[in-house]
Amino acid sequence: MPMRTIPAALRSRAAPSREGKSPPGANAGSVSAYARAAARPNIRWDRLGRVFLLGVLFVILLMYVSPLTRWVTQKNTAQEDTAELHQLESTNSELKARLKSLQSPQALELRARKLGMVKQNERAFVVENLPR
User: What distances in angstroms separate CA 128 from CA 11, 98, 118, 131, 132, one per listed residue?
Assistant: First the structure.
C-alpha cells in the first residue's frame, strides 16, 4: 500500500507528531482522524437548508396550480351559464305572456273565425271569386 503525503494545509491541523513515540501497529505516515475529517469537503448546512426550503416551496406551488386552473375554468363556465339563464328566462316570460293572451276569449274567437267556424245562431256566408 503506497504511503500518502499530507498536504501542507493539513499538516497544521493534524495532531502534533510525537517523535519516536508512535503506538505499536500504527504507520508512521498515517494521518489523525481530525486531519481526515478536515480533508473531507464541508457540508454547507445553510445552503442545503435553503435548497430544501426552495424545493418545499416549489412543491406547494405545484399543489396550487391544478385548483387554480379549475377555478378559472369554472368561473368562465359560470358566466356563460348565467348569460344563457337570462336568455332562457326572457324567452320563458315571452311565452307565458303569449299563452295568457291566446287564452283570452277574444283571441279564441279570432282563431276560430280564421279556421272558418261561426257562432251558434249565426249565418255563415261564403264569398267566392273576389278580385285580388
Answer: 132, 34, 18, 9, 11
